[in-house]
Amino acid sequence: MSLFSEKTILPPRLLSCLVAFSMFLLISSSLSLLSFNNSPFFPKSLLQFISIDNNSSISPIVPHVVTADHIPVQGPVQSPVSIYNTQKTRNKNSCDKNRALLKVYMYDLPPEFHFGLLGWKGSDGQTWPNVSDVTRIPSYPGGLNLQHSTEYWLTLDLLASESEKVVGGCSAIRVRNWSEANVVFVPFFSSLSYNRHSKRHDKQNGSVDRMLQEKLVGFLQGRKEWTRKGHLIVAHHPNSMLIARKKLSKGMFVLSDFARYPRKIANLHKDIIAPYKHMVKTIPPAESPSFDHRPILVYFQGAIYRKDGGVVRQELYRLIKNEKDVHFTFGSAQGNGVKDAGKGMASSKFCLNLAGDTPSSNRLFDAIASHCVPVIISDEIELPFEDVLDYSEFCVFVRANDAVKKGYLLNILRGIEREKWSKMWERLKSISQHYEYQFPSQPYDAVDMIWQTVARKKTKTLLNIHRKNRYRRSRFL
Question: What's the pTM value of the predicted model, to 2 decimals?
Answer without folding.
Answer: 0.79
